[in-house]
Amino acid sequence: MILRFIIKRLFYGLLVLLGVVTVIFILFNILPGDPARMMLGQRADITSVDAIRKDLGLDKPMLAQFGNFINDLSPISIHHNSDKENYWYLDPAKYSPYLKIFSAGSTSLVLKQPYMRKSYQTKREVGRIIAEAFPKTLLLATVSILFAFIVGLTIGIFSAICKDSFFDRFATVVSVLGMSLPSFFAAILIAWVFAFLLADYTGLNMTGSLYTVDDFGRGEYLNLKNLILPAITLGIRPLGLIVELTRNSMLEVLSQDYIRTARAKGLSESRIIIRHALKNALNPVITAVSGWYASLMAGAVFVEYVFDWKGIGVVIVDALEKYDFPVIMGTVLFISVILIIINILTDISYALLDPRVVLE
Questions:
Q1: Confidence (pLDDT) at 232
Q2: Domain spanning 126-321: which CATH class is it, in words?
Q3: How far is 89 from 87, CA to CA, in rounded Å?
Q4: Could you tell me which residues are beta bridge partners of residue 100?
Q5: What is the predicted pLDDT for the residue at 205?
Q6: Which of 183, 239, 327, 350 could form a disulfide with 319 if both were Cys (CB 3.0 to 4.6 A apart)?
Q7: DSSP bridge partners of 102
Q8: What is the rounded radius of gyration, in angstroms, for the C-alpha atoms of the chain?
């Protein structure tokens, strides 16, 4: 039963991914602008433009371009072996490393890494650009969600224990403000306060990435201090949500009969809270954390741009400014894949932890 549930979720995920790829291809192929002229500049001659269009496959029908786009992205793809002029030619410069699974004549079935084309501006492979930027975004999102989870869970527990107290009301107001505060405004405000007005006391910088380049001898070095402000900024909204969810869930659990029974047996309040109430109150919190973790990796664009954190967000903004369509398409597609994978893993974890999900 669970195996069938997992297979079904994986199949649905592939259908969603195919839909995302189709929408991305259509959107970016109806936008104005000639990629060949973007690569060569506006003063390029017609011969050079035509050569680039042929190299990019822009001279082919739209359906053929879409088929080749899918073929490039697929880990298992079909290619022509020898004819370099063929649109489906197995170009070692593009697809290496690869493994030929099956060959029939001049056609081969190949196992390879997804190929997301090259940047119009830098001529670098989009996959390499994403591979360099994504670990920084992953680190930022992970630290942000851990900060939100630990602090939010702690505040939510104390708010439930101290219901209707000043602390509870203050925590509720702060959590509502945190959930309603736009990330780009929070980033600017926090950078201005803690890295400009209070810079002498905090020692924090308004901008900076994971690695800092020192021109006076140290070269490039790891600077985790630059992670503090963007991580706090990105974690504010999920923090507010986790506080509210933890508080409400804890209040509901604390009113249950088995909690009253535990108190009647003489168990200490701390043991009741930690071993009985909190364990059963965590389900909605874990659900929210898993969803927000995916959202943080996709929604860190403004925070990364304000703090100049060299992650996926900065890559997207730079590509938008330069109309670098392959980079935009690659990053949007990559973020979509991350969201789909996390949603599938979340559904599968629910099925493994709660068999009733499979029946539903």
A1: 92
A2: mainly alpha
A3: 6
A4: 110
A5: 85
A6: 327
A7: 109
A8: 26
Element housing 309 (H / E) = none
Say if pTM beats, i.e. exceeds, 0.85: no
In this structure, how many other beta carbons lie within 10 angstroms of the beta carbon of residue 307?
31
Residue 265, C-beta contacts closer than 8 angstroms, at least 6 positions apart: none
Q: Where are the alpha helices (DSSP H) in the chain?
A: 2-29, 35-40, 46-56, 62-73, 92-95, 126-161, 166-180, 183-192, 199-202, 228-254, 257-264, 269-271, 278-298, 301-307, 312-321, 325-353, 356-359
CA distance 188 to 26: 35
Give DSSP secondary structure letters for 162-200: TTTSHHHHHHHHHHHHHHHS-HHHHHHHHHHIIIIITHH
What residue spans in the chain does CATH classification 1.10.3720.10 cover? 126-321
Are 213 and 220 in contact by the 8 Å Cβ rule? The answer is: yes
